[in-house]
């Protein structure tokens, strides 16, 4: 207990302050009765039990949320992601298949173009050699006539000039042109394999 005037500590139950002499008002101290203690204890028990009940309910609701809402939702998300991944995989496979088919068609087209160019070149070389050969034969017949042989004799020696694109050429020249065609065709098949 403290003096109200000087603030120093004095003995409980003193009527005057031993330091300043001030009269101490009569203050009665009474201990709480046992019924108050029991009520306080009873209230504390209620608070603890209530807190435990609320904590248990929060835990129960959390567990229920986890098993009833969160896990099924998560599983549905995983299933949906797997479906999307499968669709993307199938789409990619389809695109690769279409791309491979397109490349195969392009290679076939390019091969046909290459073979066609080789055949056109072959025909042009053959026709050019036919004209060249017909020109040589015509010149040979003309020179033969000047040497006083008859036209029929000169033609039997030199043959008839044929400048058409499908004329007969000498065997070695025809074989050379055929070999050139086959070589170009082989190059086409190597360049555009099927």
Can you tell me the residue ranges where pLDDT is under 50 for at least 5 consecutive residues?
A: 29-38
Whole-number mean pLDDT: 86
Termini gap: 112 Å
Summarize the helix and strand pattern as letters: HHH
* Helix percentage: over 70%
Strand content: under 5%
Shape: rod-shaped
Radius of gyration (CA) equals 60 Å
**Alpha-beta content class:** mainly alpha
Would you count the extended β strands for me? 0
For the sheet with most strands, the description reads: none
Number of helical stretches of at least 4 residues: 3
Please give a structural write-up.
- By secondary structure, the chain is mainly alpha-helical.
- The chain has a domain at 126-194.
- The protein contains three helices and no strands.
- It has helices at residues 34-146, 151-158, 171-191.
- Helix 1 runs antiparallel to helix 3.
- The longest helix is centred in the middle third of the chain and has 113 residues, at 34-146.
- The radius of gyration is 60 Å and the shape is rod-shaped.
- The model is unreliable at 29-38 (pLDDT under 50).
List the helices and strands and how they pair.
Blueprint: H1 34-146, H2 151-158, H3 171-191
Helix pairs in contact: 1-2, 1-3
Summarize the structure.
The chain is an all-alpha fold and 194 residues long. It is built from 3 helices and no strands.
List keywords for this structure.
194 residues, mainly alpha, 73% helix, rod-shaped, 3 helices, single chain
């Amino acid at each position: 207990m403290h003096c109200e005037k000087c603030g120093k500590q004095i003995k409980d139950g003193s009527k005057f302050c031993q330091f300043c002499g001030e009269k101490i008002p009569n203050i009665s101290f009474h201990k709480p009765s046992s019924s108050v203690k029991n009520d306080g204890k009873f209230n504390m028990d209620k608070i603890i039990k209530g807190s435990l009940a609320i904590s248990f309910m929060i835990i129960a609701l959390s567990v229920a949320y986890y098993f009833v809402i969160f896990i099924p939702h998560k599983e549905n998300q995983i299933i949906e992601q797997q479906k999307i991944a499968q669709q993307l995989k199938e789409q990619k496979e389809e695109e690769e298949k279409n791309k491979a088919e397109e490349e195969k068609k392009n290679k076939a087209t390019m091969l046909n173009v290459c073979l066609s160019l080789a055949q056109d070149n072959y025909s042009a070389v053959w026709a050019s050699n036919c004209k060249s050969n017909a020109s040589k034969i015509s010149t040979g017949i003309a020179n033969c006539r000047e040497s006083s042989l008859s036209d029929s004799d000169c033609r039997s020696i030199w043959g008839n000039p044929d400048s058409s694109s499908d004329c007969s050429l000498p065997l070695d020249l025809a074989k050379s042109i055929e070999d050139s065609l086959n070589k170009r065709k082989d190059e086409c098949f190597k360049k555009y394999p099927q």
